[in-house]
Design goal:
The chain is α+β, with helices and mostly antiparallel strands. Helix content is about 35%, strand content about 20%. Strand 11 and strand 12 form a beta hairpin. The structure holds glycine and manganese (II) ion (2 copies). Glycine binds near residues 267, 309, 385 and 391. Glycine binds near residues 267, 298, 309, 391 and 432.
Length: about 450
């Protein structure tokens, strides 16, 4: 079939347009539910309100981490930089002043330093935002290419308070010539010249105070991450059978996550069966599962940066043994009571203290320990942590307030050889839900996913 000549220029334009759209897609232009630039701008404004006059905050991007040769690990932005800017690119830094300052011939209370456009790199790695697009899309009135950061100390004078967040493992993990490394070195020598400290502790408190209270926009994304995780776990639970491997259970859940648009997991998926149920952060997930054992699945889909963190423990053959059920019921009782403590004005630790008491008394009554204070032999972790951009999210761990999201995750783990009757050996159970503090009390964001023992058995029998 021949194409009429008159159509050729139009086909060319259409082709170029489609190619550009494909490239833009790599910068996440396909998703229309990302946090808006106004959210990040407001976060910068809220941080600014906490700063004394004469302050300057600098938050750097995460380094690109090399796996080997020319393959890097999937890039993940520093959560504070993402929170303050929405930027997903490496080799960047944001500067926030307490009041407008002149620098590089412009006056603003913030400057974003970002990678330069580079046609040849963009051909391999996808489009870079560049100064112009970053200014428009991320709502910054002052953007500079990152090499200009090296001139900052000459441009900005009379800072009384520095608050600098350096990237972690910067010295070992990134190429000496990377722009990020150069910016970090420059910042360190500036502080050395001024003979001042980096104020990192104060900055992390400011950011913890902000990030521990989720806005409505964040809660939409967090709920989506939780819903995806519930769907993936439910599908996995329905399909578990003796003879399957742990990784096959993981695969079912993670397949569902991807199908529902989750970009990643918030942490390595934990699918431990039999003796592996007692390894708290087990991620090998290679073991074939046997009849009569339990499998503990602790998984969290990440959606647009926000991660869920949910655990269910089920019998591989679909029916709890009497002894498994006794331990399960005790963990569930502790968890349900602990959730009631997730309310405004309560201490962060209150849920843990109650769970520990219930588990201590329960283990004593079952004859597994002789004194309830020995509970830590079998329940050796905390009950709660904040949840958000990180699975163990930042926060003040003080008094709970509306907008806090935390996990409630008591567990009992009895490895082989434990100093109790052998009948309990190999039982490891954790039940974990994600709970939002509201003015009306705790709201279990993950309540779609069954956790009652009969409900789970019912789900597995279908
Ligand atoms: N998934 C890790 C935790 O529950 O804290
Ligand atoms: Mn977990
Ligand atoms: Mn957790």
């Amino acid at each position: 079939m021949s194409v009429p000549k008159v159509l050729i220029p139009w086909l060319l334009i259409a082709f170029l347009f489609l190619s550009c759209t494909a490239l833009f897609g790599q910068q996440n232009f396909y998703d229309n539910d990302l946090l808006p630039a106004s959210f990040h701008k407001d976060r910068r404004e809220q941080l600014r309100k906490k700063l004394p006059p004469g302050s300057m905050v600098v938050v750097f991007s995460n380094p690109v981490r090399n796996r080997s040769n020319d393959v890097d690990y999937k890039y993940s932005q520093d959560p504070d930089l993402y929170y303050l800017t929405g930027l997903m690119e490496p080799d960047a830094a944001v500067v926030i002043f307490s009041e407008p300052r002149e620098a590089f011939g412009a006056t603003s209370d913030e400057i974003l330093f970002i990678r330069e456009k580079d046609d040849s790199r963009e051909l391999w790695d996808g489009i870079r935002l560049g100064v112009k697009m970053a200014g428009e899309d991320l709502n910054f009135d002052h953007v500079q290419v990152n090499r200009k950061f090296l001139e900052m100390s000459g441009q900005v004078k009379g800072i009384d308070n520095f608050y600098i967040k350096y990237p972690t493992d910067i010295d070992v993990n990134i190429g000496k010539k990377s722009s990020l490394n150069r910016m970090v070195k420059e910042m360190r020598s500036w502080l050395a010249d001024e003979r001042v400290s980096d104020g990192a502790g104060r900055l992390s408190t400011f950011l913890a105070e902000l990030r521990e209270v989720k806005t409505d926009e964040e809660l939409v994304l967090l709920q989506k991450a939780v819903d995806i995780t519930c769907a993936g776990l439910e599908k996995a639970i329905r399909n578990i059978k003796p003879g399957m491997t742990e990784y096959q259970v993981q695969a079912i859940a993670e397949f569902e996550f991807r199908m529902m648009g989750s970009e990643y997991q918030g942490y390595g998926s934990i699918c431990g069966s039999g003796p592996n149920t007692s390894i708290l952060h087990y991620t090998d997930n290679r073991r074939p599962m046997d009849d009569g054992e339990l499998i503990l699945m602790d998984i969290g889909a990440e959606y647009h940066g926000y991660t869920a963190d949910i655990t269910r423990t089920v019998p591989v053959n679909g029916k709890f043994t009497d002894d498994q059920r006794k331990i399960y019921d005790l963990v569930l009782k502790a968890q349900l009571e602990g959730i009631k403590k997730v309310k405004e004005g309560e201490r962060f630790r209150a849920a843990h203290e109650l769970c520990a008491r219930i588990i201590g008394e329960g283990l004593r009554d079952l004859g597994i320990i002789s004194n309830k204070s020995e509970y830590m032999k079998y329940f050796m972790h905390g009950t709660s942590h904040y949840l958000g951009l990180e699975v163990h999210d930042t926060g003040t761990y003080g008094t709970l307030q509306t907008g806090n999201v935390l996990t409630v995750e008591p567990g009992i783990y009895i490895p082989e050889g434990s100093p109790c009757d052998e009948r309990w050996w190999g039982i490891g159970i954790r039940i974990e839900d994600d709970v939002l503090v509201t003015p009306d009390g705790p709201q279990v964001m993950s309540d779609k996913l069954p956790k009652g023992p009969e409900e789970l058995e019912q789900l597995m029998s279908q």
